[in-house]
Structures are given as C-alpha cells and as structure tokens.
Amino acid sequence: MPQDEGMAPWWQSAVVYQIYPRSFADSDGDGVGDIPGIIAHLDHLSALGVDVVWLSPVYRSPMDDNGYDISDYTAVDPLFGTLEDLDALIAGLHERGMKLVMDLVVNHTSDEHPWFQSSRDVASPMRDWYLWRPAREGHEPGTPGAEPTNWGSFFSGSGWEYDPASHQYFLHLFSPKQPDLNWENPGVRQAVHQMMRWWVDRGVDGFRMDVINLISKTYPLRDGEVNGPDGLSYDPSLVIEGPRLHEFLREMNTEVGLSERDLFSVGEMILVNADQARSHTDEAAGELGMVFTFEHMSIDSGPSGMKWDVIPLHLPTLKANLAQWQYGLADHGWNSLYFENHDQPRSVSRFGDDSPEFRVASAKTLATTLHLLKGTPYVYQGQELGMTNAGFTSIEQYNDIESIRFHAQAVAAGGAPEQVLAAIAFKSRDNARTPMQWDASANAGFGAGTPWLAVNPNHAEINAAAAAADPDSVFHHYRALIALRHDLEIVRQGRFLLLLPEDERLFCYTRTLGAEVLLVVANWSSEPVALPSDLPDLTGAEVLLGTHASTSPQLAGWESRIYRLA
Ligand code: NOJ
After folding, report:
1. How far apart are the CA of 14 and the centre of ligand 1, in A?
2. Nearest CA to ligand 1 atom 11
3. Between the CA of residue 456 and those of 224, 397, 436, 438, what are the distances in Å?
4. Less Cβ around it within 10 Å: N or C end of the chain?
5. Pocket of ligand 1 contains residue 69 by CB under 6 Å
6. Mean pLDDT of the chain
7. Which atom of ligand 1 is least distant from the CA of 429?
8. Which residues lie closer than 8 Å to 551 by C-beta, 6 or more apart?
9. Ligand 1, from 54, 105, 294: best to mutate by most atoms within 8 Å of Cβ?
10. Distance 170 CA to ligand 1 centre (A)
C-alpha cells in the first residue's frame, strides 16, 4: 500500500547532510577532522535546515580505507575523539531538532578486528566468521593463479589474500585489510544485531549500511568472465543480491527493531536496479527505508563499466535513468536522491560547469533538479557551497586507496600515465575529501595543523562564511530548496512526470498532487535555451524559486526555475 497522506514515515520529509569527519573540521590541530570539530559547526547545519546527519565512520580503525575498515564497532577512534564526544554530538543534534545516522560497515571488518585475528587460527570457533578457502584445485597454494576464484577486488588486484600460516586464502572484496564477513554464520549476524542495538540505545537514530547488498554471497563461489586488464574478473553481478539478502535484511530489521523503533535506514547497494530497490524498500518487505542506487553515477562511464573509463555526460540518458527510478518507486518503496558523497567527485565539476562564470548557477541548477524529485535528498558537506574538484596533478597528492591502487595497476598494465592521471583527476574520491572550506583564511578555517589532504586554493572565494553573507549564494539556494520540501506536501509526495526526454540541454519535469502542479525547468548547459512551446502553459504561473531573477521565455546558461502552475 502507498503510505496514506499524513502517515508517511518521518524520514520521507527529511533532508540528510553527510559528514565525512576526517575532512569536516579539525579542533585539535592534528590536521584531521574530529567530532569536537563537528560540534563546533552545528549552527551551520541548523542554518541550512537539514534534518539528519549521516556520519561516515568514526569507529576505531587502522584507517586503511579511512575508517571503512573497522577494528572495534563500539569504540571511537582517538583520531576523531571519544565516546563522550559522540554522546555530546548526539545531544547537540537532538537539541537542535536533528538526528544522527551512523555508518554501518558490516560486509567486512578490518583485518585488525579481534574477530578476524581469532579467525586466522584454523582451530578457532571464529574461523568460519570469514570466507576462508583452499587454493584452486591442482595449484600450489600461494603461487600465481592459485586463488580460489578469479575475482578482482573493487580496489583493483585479486579479491583473495593468501595466508601462509594456514595455506588458505581469505576473501576481501575491498582492500586486503578489509576481509569479508561470512553472513551465513548466525554468530556473525547476532553480533552485528547486538552492536546495532547498542548504538540505538545510546541514542543514534538509524544507519547508513555500507555495501549491504554484498552480505549474502552465492555459493559455491565461482569464476567470473575476465574483463580486467590484469586477467581478473571485475563482475559485481557475481557478488551482489545473493539468495539470502532479503532474509538477512528482514532479520536485521526485526532483531534491531528498525521499523518498530521508527529508525532511519538506507542501504548502499552496488548495481541494484529500481525493481530490486523496490523489493527492498517496499514497506511490506520489512527491510529498509531506502537504498542508494549507483546507476546514475555510472552514466559517465564507458562500455567497460569501470568508473575510470570516463565518457561525456549524455543528459537524455541521465534523465531516463532518474525517471525510471522515480516511476519504479512511485507507489511502493522510496528513493534516496544524491549527486555527491565521499566516494564521488564534486557534481559541479562533473555534471555542471565549474568555471567562474557558471559555477554558482550550475551548482544551484543541479541542486534544484535533484531536490524537486520525489525521495529523500542528501547534501554532501561542501556541496551546499558549490565546492569543486581538487585539481590535483600528481599521484603523490592523493591519499585515497582506490585511486592509488588503480594508478599502480593501470600504469603497470601499460596505460599512458597522463591519461591515467586525467581519469583520476576527474573521478577520484579525493575530489570530495579535500577539507571543508569554512572561510578565506589559511587552511580554509579547517584547523590550525597542516590538513591531511590539501585544501583547494579556491577556498579564498568558495567558503561557508562568504556564502552565508551573500543572499545569492549556492548555500542560500540550498536553504530555500530545503525549506520548500518542508513546507510543501507536493515536493514530498507529488507524482513525477519527465518532460522532453530527448532534449540534450533541458531537464524538465512536473510534480502533481491533486489539482496542484509544479513544473521544474532546468538548463543543463552553458548556452541560453528557449523554453519550447510544448511545455505546460505558463500563463499565470508563479515562480517559487529560480536561479536568476528572470521570467523570460529563454533560460540563460545553467538557469533553472520552479513554477507553480495556475
Ligand atoms: C562504500 C564506502 O562508501 C566506501 O567509501 C568504502 O571504501 C567501501 N564501501 C568499502 O567499505
């Protein structure tokens, strides 16, 4: 059943703000952002008007993947502060009417987690908590090609690591320091549920679940089609949406009380399509509130499907994809809406035009296009300022394990170094991880110490202090969009219809609720475009929000408007 009006769960009216703690604000001058740094900036979030903070991992971790490799799920890493700091963050958010969603990384742990340490011992009852396998039949363990399957990891190189002590391999779909947990083992699942309940009891309001559609593997594990330059198979379809995924998610929901306690839940799901997303987020499924799709993030990847194989954005393809998700989850399930997070480059550099002439307009137009869709919008730190890609030119400037491992692999395979670097400069996750730009001072007001990743020199112009003081800034546009969602039921629940699907510059759609209709017109190009005559009649229409103070029948480069039709 679609939700009755007025009965919709609270998170369907919410806007989420993602904090990548390492890059948000550094309170103690060690060059790394921390929880007290976040607490010092809660007024920025209140001013923006967001309802929920999703905090990327702050758990104890060796930081091989910046905290997505967890060695203790119930401790805060000293780099970020203490449990008491986290309690203070929860209290500070709750006092301001905001909620806290924690990152839940349970497809894998760190190899330094005590569970894995114990699992290294073949005689341990925890041996089976991870995926240990013997060498491929007929191969000497530890020799090239002896890995149990030909899987490449998401971070390049084999997905198997050899353990000379036991002559076996363990599976790691990410780095070798991120061994995959064996969810078939009930002890693993119970330990995860218990840990989640512990956080809920501490006051957190829900979870963002890291790569959660990888937890159920399809057995027996088998070779995939080779599609990597290194002779490995990089075919995620072999590892996603395994046969017990629905069961595991339902069990988690029940055991933790996700639905019962009205908690927020979003599952990050690799390669999921809209039908699968609906099957996970339909209320009747009793699994998750919403999922993160990757489909629209792959639209500028070439035929290999690999993110580094960059092709120009074709707007009709993006529109068709977003529309498919809008239609697919119109009555059952719920969409999450995002153009940025800590794994994606900056959207204004990727889809917009980050030149001085169009940066502000294109950042606003991307925001309008996304925030008027049906679903729960996510703002990634700095997106509300129109922060741009990092502009790094040498591999030494990068920190990200994915970028560094890809660079090594691609150059070793004969890739032209300048082409490899160009792909990384466009798509690297570090584009989103440069320190938050608070003001024009040294280190952008991030902190007193040398930041762990270089600050973008454009912080002299692009920063939160300047944006707050300028009523025409990207920041104030985000505020207005968030307020519109809070004020108008039609923004939250109206039915979506894509217009002009083939147009290569205009992104136009309507939202309808009863007799009320909103029309969004957005020019996704730097050239002026006339509004075509086959759009709905604009006579008597009111502009609710626009990027430019204009009602001309022509849109300037990157101009967008939200109309309420008469
Ligand atoms: C997805 C996270 O968003 C990403 O940052 C991380 O590297 C992988 N999962 C592995 O945990």
Report:
1. 24
2. 68
3. 41, 12, 9, 12
4. N
5. no
6. 96
7. 5
8. 543, 561
9. 105
10. 19
**Is 51 among the residues known to form the active site?**
no
Strands (E), 111-255: 132-133, 160-163, 168-171, 206-209
pTM score of the predicted model: 0.97
Does residue 39's CB lie within 6 angstroms of at least one atom of ligand 1? no
Probe target for ligand 1 pocket from 68, 103, 104, with the most ligand atoms within 8 Å of CB: 68
Report the alpha-carbon distance of residue 213 to residue 111 in Å, rounded: 21
Residues 6 or more apart in contact with residue 313 via CB below 8 angstroms: 299, 300, 350, 351
Atom of ligand 1 nearest to the CA of 69: 11
Q: Is 34 a catalytic residue?
A: no
* DSSP helix/strand/coil, 231: coil
* 3-class SS of residue 321: helix
Secondary structure in 3-state letters for 356-416: CCCHHHHHHHHHHHHHCCCCEEEEECCHHHCCCCCCCCCHHHCCCHHHHHHHHHHHHCCCC
Measure 342 CA to ligand 1 centroid, in angstroms: 9
> In what helix (H) or strand (E) does residue 188 lie, and over which residues does it extend?
helix 186-202
For residues 372-397, average pLDDT: 98
Structure tokens at 106: 């349970």
Reported as a pLDDT band with limits 50, 70 and 90, residue 4 is very low
* C-beta of 211 in contact with ligand 1 (< 6 A): yes
The residue whose two tokens read 């729960």 is 376
Say yes or no: CB of residue 105 within 6 Å of ligand 1. yes
For 355-370, what is each residue's pLDDT tens digit?
Answer: 999 999 999 999 999 9
Cβ atoms of residues 278 and 329 within 8 Å: yes
Closest among 43, 173, 162 to 98, alpha carbons compared: 43
In whole angstroms, give the CA distance from residue 499 to residue 138.
59
Cβ contact 527:558 at 8 Å: no
Tell me if 343 CB under 6 Å of ligand 1.
Answer: yes
DSSP secondary-structure letter at 110?
-
Nearest CA to ligand 1 atom 8: 68
**Short-list 486, 450, 479, 485, CA closest to 464:** 479
* pLDDT value for 164: 98
- Tens-digit pLDDT profile for residues 422-465: 999 999 999 999 999 999 999 999 999 999 999 999 999 999 99
Residue with the smallest CA separation from ligand 1 atom 6 is 68
Catalytic member of 210, 287, 343, 400: 210
Specify whether the CB–CB gap between 103 and 208 falls below 8 A. yes
